[in-house]
Amino acid sequence: MKEKLMDVKAPIAKKIPLKLEKHGNVRIDDYYWMNDREDQEVIDYLNSENAYYEKMTAHTKDFQEKLFHEMKSRIKEDDSSVPYKYNGYWYITKYKTGQEYPIYSRRKENMDAEDEILFDCNELAKGHDYFNFKGVSVSPDNTMASFGVDTVSRREYDIQIKNLQTGAVYPDKIEKTTGSSVWGNDGKTLFYTKKDTVTLRSDKIYRHTLGSESTEDVLVYHEKDETFNTFVYKTKSKKFIVIGSVSTLTSEYQILNADIPEGDFRIFSPREIGVEYSIAH
Hints:
single chain, mainly beta, 7-stranded antiparallel sheet, 5-stranded antiparallel sheet, 4 helices
């Protein structure tokens, strides 16, 4: 086996030196050309890396399988979260034996009520090599839920909206977001965060109206400082929509009356470098 492995040649990426300058510092990146994930030459090289890995680890496949089953045997597959109550419903996340993804459900008013399945991620994941689900946000009247799905493993989620009464998913589709969103109190307005397509930094907050095209969404805030990330959420009191901007040692928040989703956000306390704070209502 060792002799056979020695005959396998590792792929070697070509070097194309590129001079990069930032803040007066210069560095040479020999592999910057691999930054283009759509380039066929890059794809071919990555495929050769994967093929090399498969050949070099072929003799460990049985051991890998054994380890997997040993670790899996120590995990309780049939499990569920502690229920929590929100706006008249008890919400539960559960897993079933033999299934990989969670099932989101709720029960009206008390835990003895009938179980209502909101999302069965095992069904949603079918046909996808990769699947990640996050950001379930239920509308104020409990009839709709927004959610985020990533099927390419790049942490860029498409937000969609489901009618919880009919089970239908609305045609609204918002691409390349963080996956999380928050409802205005009118039950038809959503706020969400988009990412920079290159750096994946969350930098823009948009407002979406149910039933409209995402191209018509309104940019309500752009965090231009590259050292900050931005996000949006609703206070526990359900009275305010909050935009947060944070860096390593600094934070800043803007607030909006959730009853007036088309209003203007106002700064709670202007950012001051080195000062962190949080707010709650």
